Amino acid sequence: MSLNPLDLYDIQSMLSEEENAVREAVARFVDTRVIPVIGNAFDEARFPVEWIPEVAELGLLGSSLPAKYGCAELSSVQYGLICQELERGDSGLRSFVSVQSSLCMYPIYAYGSEEQRMRWLPSMAQGKTIGCFGLTESHGGSDPANMKTRAVKDGDHWVLNGSKMWITNATIADIAIVWAHTDEGIQGFVVEKGMEGFSTQEIKHKMSLRASVTGALFFDNVRVPDANRLPNVKGLKGPLGCLTQARYGISWGPIGSAIACLEEVLAYTKERILFDRPVAATQSAQIKMAEMARRITLAQLLALRLGRLKDEGKMVPQHVSLAKWNNCRMAIDIARECRDLLGGAGITTEHHAIRHALNLESVITYEGTETVHQLVIGRELTGINAF
């Protein structure tokens, strides 16, 4: 029996009919709408906003949230498969969906009032209201508690001052979920586009996530109504809870990048003839591709187990750290190796590898660097905090 080179352990057979249906629907969208144009979009440093209504129509925005808010109410495994297939197209597209779903819709659902949920979630699920997540600051990076942005109560408003950096969707967002220090601890606010003193600026000259909008947020005495404060959380557990949701999706996404790279290089090495034989007929190429398949298989099994734990209510942040660390490292190594096997052709965006390799430089860094997640596991093993 011949094995599927992109699914050696037949993970597909371990998925339910509903899970496979979601995966196949997103895969068709990626194959027909994303892959044909993504190379040019990356070259042009343009996020194709025309995808947004289509992604919304597929039910991919806030897909795990309840149907009463206009969401698909899918399982965690189904959401993971969505992330995998979207990132098979491009990390920028998966980042857009991840930010909208896990970093913006999730905190409104988890920490907001019912009035806030009904006000924003249905339109966000429809892609009519776009969100961004304001936590990271230019000096803070992996130390969010060190944020300088501050909100001070003034009657029935809060006066917000500070800035945020490296924000996906910054300049196209209608609302920003912004975390700031207050006298009562860190709190979250829904800052709306057009509020006086709130401005954004796109970050240019990126060599990674070029088909994604990245920018900075600036707050100069922005008056935010108390009705826009997320009332049900205080402290770092709020933003960190959002990041756990997003990191879960990131644990699946890079598998798609790696699969795209391996699929392409398998075909290319069979067709390219060097020294009178296909590159695929050489021991060195076969060993490299076998190693890729091994690592993808391990990542697939790890992600599926993580998803089952999440659906059972047993997942903890340390589980997510291990999966993000392993699967991002797996994918970036494979993308780089595939670029090498493609030879000179591998440096152009006519092929997938260099684009995925560059994107993964961001994916392995944002929402917890590889080092941070290694230290999370180290602390779990030893009981000693080495941060």
Can you give a write-up of this model?
With 387 residues, this protein is of the alpha+beta class. The protein has three domains: 11-125, Acyl-CoA dehydrogenase/oxidase, N-terminal domain (Butyryl-Coa Dehydrogenase, subunit A, domain 1), CATH 1.10.540.10; 131-228, Beta Barrel (Butyryl-CoA Dehydrogenase, subunit A, domain 2); 237-382, Butyryl-CoA Dehydrogenase, subunit A, domain 3 (Up-down Bundle), CATH 1.20.140. It has ten helices and nine strands. The protein has helices at 17-44, 51-57, 76-89, 91-111, 114-125, 237-271, 283-311, 317-341, 353-363, 370-382, and strands at 131-134, 150-154, 157-168, 175-182, 185-192, 198-202, 214-225, 273-274, 277-278. The strands form three sheets. A four-stranded antiparallel sheet has the order 2-3-7-6, covered by helices on one side. Strands 1-4-5 form a three-stranded mixed sheet, with helices on one face. It has a two-stranded antiparallel ribbon with strand order 8-9. Strand 4 (175-182) and strand 5 (185-192) form a beta hairpin. Helix 1 packs parallel to helix 3 (76-89) and helix 6 packs antiparallel against helix 9. The longest helix is centred in the middle third of the chain and has 35 residues, at 237-271. The protein is globular and about 80 Å long. It starts with 16 loop residues before the first helix and ends in a 5-residue tail after the last helix. The mean pLDDT is 97. Residues 132-222 form the Acyl-CoA oxidase/dehydrogenase middle domain. It comes from Aquilutibacter rugosus. Belongs to the acyl-CoA dehydrogenase family. This is glutaryl-CoA dehydrogenase (ETF). Keywords: FAD, Flavoprotein, Oxidoreductase, Transit peptide.
